[in-house]
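Reviewer comment 2.1 asked that we show a complete input and output for one of the modelled complexes. We chose the uracil case, as it is the one discussed in the main text.
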Amino acid sequence: MIKKEGIALERLDKLLASTGRWSRKEAKDLVRLGRVLADGSPVRGPEERYDPGAVCLTVDGEAVDCSPFVYVMLHKPAGLLSATEDKRQPTVLDLLPPELRRRGLFPAGRLDKDTTGLLLLTDDGDLAHRLLSPKKHVDKVYLARVEGRIDTEDVKALAEGMVLKDGLRCLPAVLEPLEDGSECRITLREGKYHQVKRMLAARGKPVLTLHRLSMGSLTLDQALKPGQWRFLSTFERGQLGEDRQA
Ligand code: URA
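Response of the prediction step:
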């Protein structure tokens, strides 16, 4: 990194590769093919340096966001571990292309292997920490299908805050029965190990399937099928930034 008047300048190919969309070699090729403009002007070569916070880069006319972190929304399918690597089993990272895996993304908050739904993958450790910190109380909303029927006693017990047999004290949670009570929406402000399953099992309503709909301001994009992912929009990133402050 080179500094000019106190501003850190980055090589163009490095900036493009940092988005996770292209490898360094692909970025160099894009530049050489004249597909990249910086502030509206053609660039001379991949070694040109720019201020990541100020330059406006486009590739084939489309604006490229060079912010230092990557944020990916994934529709986690059942059967994958929410981990970065595992010797024996596939992980959610296996769904991402090599350029993104190389960036060292990790899941911000785990889902069980059989749980589906919203998973945020990022390399922004500070954001992940703040979203997951119990002190921040970021809402996580799940859809569960259970054995038996959710009743008003269950709703009341969760609203009061349960203490499980193993001594785990749960913060008050919102339980909304759906359909005939065999499904429910549950909103937690914390994320302890197997928490939804343990709370509902303690009520005698074991979970059959579990799906995360949202986390703070971030809602799973209905257009994403299980296993599909996309980058967060600028708007979604801005909102997450506000969750981080809350
Ligand atoms: N609670 C659970 O029990 N499992 C999950 O995957 C997420 C929340």
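The domain at 71-134+217-245 is CATH 3.30.70.580 (Alpha-Beta Plaits). We note this here for comparison with the apo prediction described in Section 3.2.
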